[in-house]
Write a structure and sequence with these properties.
The complex is a heterodimer. By secondary structure, chain A is of the alpha/beta class. Chain A is about 30% helix and about 20% strand. In chain A, strands 6-7-8-3-9-10-12-11 form an eight-stranded mixed beta sheet, with helices on both faces. In chain A, strands 2-1-4-5 form a four-stranded antiparallel beta sheet, covered by helices on one side. In chain A, α7 links the parallel β7 (about 175-180) and β8. In chain A, α6 packs parallel to α7 (about 190-205). The two termini of chain A are about 40 Å apart. By secondary structure, chain B is of the alpha/beta class. Chain B has a domain at about 5-220: 3-Layer(aba) Sandwich (Rossmann fold), CATH 3.40.50.300. In chain B, the strands form two sheets. Chain B has an eight-stranded mixed beta sheet, sandwiched between helices. In chain B, α6 packs parallel to α7. Classes of the chains: A alpha/beta, B alpha/beta. The interface between A and B is large, with 45 and 42 residues.
């Protein structure tokens, strides 16, 4: 019954039932991930990209709840249905997280080695002490750290080194899917490049697929094979990175790419007009229409669905929906 | 011309002896009162850029050298002069959450400076001033006033701190990573507010950042710090388009290009772990530098004039020495843009 995909997400819905009302943080998102593939999810705060990550790990906490859809891991394990005990065994071993704030993810009072041993023991990996030592040394070396880092406490390491420790832990049980949630947002560009190269190397070594979550389009351009653009809890565009940058289809993706600074041009500041809607009161029709430079009459009443446009690109925008009742007022960009 | 603020060979050393940390070494910079400028100070974490900010604001005392405000040493100015300094030199910080007391409405952050500096005769005038300042930075006062910090977005909160600085009609605003915690989509509009203040209100900025792209977008000059040492400075376009110092080259090539067909350069220096390389004498970058020469490890390189940039690197030892920034050289540099 497997289709060979590392991950299949179908019509995923996550909502937060707050006192002020219901927030649909992830609103019907579908995508697949092939083994070894690198997928980027971009979007501004509140777009739902981190909520997807938490849903894939089934770490959504109340008042949040996964209230629809399916997350199929390796073609066989339905993440939304397994028991909590089974899920604990799956995390780390089959789907692992490289967290955003490495400084806050390590236990400050335990040595790095003990933290590795904890995660191994919790997943039933039984090793003799010298075997464990060797295994940890190999893992640390694979992320460009010296083996003696195992003896250190987190406060003795720099931010970049701590992030590497987190990467080594994430790959320690050879998961098939690695989720990296803004893994370099607290680091400067030089260290950022080293960390991304490290993630790329270990990922290729163990053949895992990676989901990189972030808002830095430059990082996405350099790292991922496929790019998914999130807005207001929805996936509005999905396609190969090169195509997405060469000919972005959704007006939001177009503004995102157009606003990127380049040293080759005169300095300019491209502003994305307006602000994201309140998550409690999404606008009718297309969620982006209040800010969209290309909106037309039908945009405030018809919800666009993600459909193929060209090549491998999919886009949720009425500009490309010739079968919808109203015709676009503007020429679609080529 | 008169200098509003001058840093004259400022060094700051924390601790002493073997464990001393040279946070900032021999740093000089002049902010001209008559020519509003935007200077970016860029560097990685630990480069000394925040120490420079704290020295400028008078929070730290220089170990050697002087910070001069209107020609007088900041450490020895009188009470009334200090008061004037506190009004004329304002700061905007990185974290738009940290500056608010969550128990008070945001209005308080704006009324407090008006009261302290007696900027308004009565409540009505104070309110009007606040509304004008908010509109200038792109906020709708009716949407924001009367609210608590947690009810506002990060972008709104950061704009309020800019409005607060503007209320005091400062001559210089020190902006320490003002957009590193806001979304890319809001970044441009906040930077645009800073440009407006610079152009319309003739306020100078010292823009402290680790992000060369935003520095390029708003600054005229760029100063690149590495381990407390100024390694390269010059007109921003010259520095980012044709970086001269190997460290600046590494910084620029590490920026991920938003063009998937232009892959990240693979520099040898990037493979080295910065935490393991701490030189004590000579050029601070020597141990990571691909072009390292014997003299780099023994002697601190002076600044050489390379085009319009000053570069502290022996690769350029055949060039003339760059002069210390004087009122004149600053003007020349500003006019070149």
């Amino acid at each position: 019954m497997t289709n060979g995909n590392a991950l299949d997400v179908r019509d995923l819905y996550v909502q937060f039932n707050t006192r002020a009302g219901v927030v649909r943080a992830v609103d019907g998102v579908s995508f697949s991930l092939k083994p070894g593939e690198r997928l980027g999810l971009v979007g501004e705060s509140g777009s739902g990209k981190s909520t997807i990550a938490m849903a894939l790990l089934r770490m959504i906490k109340p008042p949040g709840v996964i209230n629809g859809g399916s997350i199929l891991l390796g073609g066989s394990t339905e993440i939304t249905k397994v028991t909590d005990k089974e899920m604990r065994a799956i995390r780390f071993a089959r789907i692992a997280l490289i967290p955003q704030g490495a400084m806050n993810s390590l236990n400050p009072v335990r040595r790095i080695r003990d933290q590795f041993l904890d995660s191994m023991r919790a997943h039933g990996v039984k090793l003799k002490s010298d075997e464990a030592k060797e295994r940890i040394a190999t893992l640390l070396t694979s992320v460009g750290l010296r083996p003696d880092v195992a003896n250190k406490f987190p406060h003795e390491l720099s931010g970049g080194m701590k992030q590497r420790v987190c990467i080594a832990m994430a790959v320690s049980l050879k998961p098939s899917v690695i989720i990296a949630d803004e893994p370099t947002s607290a680091l400067d560009v030089v260290v950022q490049r080293q960390i991304m190269e490290t993630i790329g190397n270990v990922q290729e070594e163990i053949g895992a697929a990676v989901i990189l979550i972030g808002h830095d389009m430059g990082l996405m351009a350099q790292f991922v094979d496929r790019l998914g653009v999130m807005y207001g809890g929805k996936l509005v565009e999905d396609g190969e990175t090169k195509e997405a940058f060469r000919s972005p289809q959704h007006p939001y993706t177009q503004v995102l790419i157009d606003s990127l600074p380049s040293f080759d041009e005169e300095p300019r500041l491209v502003k994305i007009p307006g602000q994201m809607h309140s998550p409690l009161a999404p606008p009718p029709g297309c969620v982006f229409h209040p800010r969209c430079p290309k909106r037309f009459a039908a945009c405030d009443s018809i919800v666009p669905v993600l459909r193929p446009v060209q090549g491998h690109q999919r886009v949720a925008c009425l500009l490309y929906a010739s079968s919808y009742p109203a015709q676009p007022q503007l020429e679609p960009v080529s | 011309m008169s200098s509003l603020l001058e840093m004259r060979s400022v060094s700051k050393i924390f601790g002493s002896g073997e464990t001393a940390t040279h946070a900032l070494t021999d740093f000089s910079h002049i902010v001209d009162e008559d020519k509003p400028s935007i200077t970016a100070i860029a560097g990685e974490s630990g480069s000394g850029k925040s120490t420079a900010a704290r020295l400028i604001l008078g929070f730290e005392k220089p170990t050697t050298g002087q910070v001069l405000y209107r020609g007088k040493d900041l450490q020895s100015i009188s009470g009334s002069e200090r008061r004037q300094f506190r009004q004329e030199v304002q700061a905007i910080f990185q974290d738009p959450f940290g500056v608010y007391n969550p128990f008070y409405r945001v209005d308080r952050l704006l009324h407090t400076p008006i009261k302290s500096f007696k900027l308004a005769k009565n409540k009505a005038e104070a309110n009007e001033k606040i509304r004008v300042a908010m509109r200038t930075v792109g906020l709708n006062p009716d949407e924001v006033l009367g609210r608590y910090p947690h009810q506002l977005s990060g972008g709104q909160r950061q704009r309020i701190t800019i409005a607060r600085a503007l209320l005091l009609q400062p001559r210089l605003i020190l902006a320490d990573e003002p957009v590193s915690m806001v979304d890319a989509s809001l970044r441009a509009s906040i930077l645009d507010s800073l440009l407006t203040l610079n152009r319309e209100f003739r306020i100078s900025f010292m823009y402290i950042t680790h992000d060369l792209t935003t520095a390029y977008q708003i600054a005229e000059r760029l100063m690149v710090l590495f381990r407390g040492t100024l390694v390269e400075s010059g007109p921003v376009a010259d520095v980012v388009r044709a970086p001269k110092h190997p460290y600046t080259q590494l910084l620029v090539s590490s920026i991920p290009s938003p063009d998937p067909t232009k892959p990240w350069g693979q520099d040898a220096a990037s493979a080295k772990d910065p935490a393991e390389t701490f030189g004590t004498t000579g050029c601070p970058f020597a141990s990571r530098c691909a072009h390292v020469m014997p003299e780099c490890r023994s002697t601190v390189p002076p600044k050489f004039q390379v085009g319009r940039a000053a570069v502290a690197c022996f690769l350029y030892k055949d060039r003339p020495l760059a002069g210390e920034p004087t009122a004149n050289s600053q003007q020349v540099l500003l006019q070149t843009r």
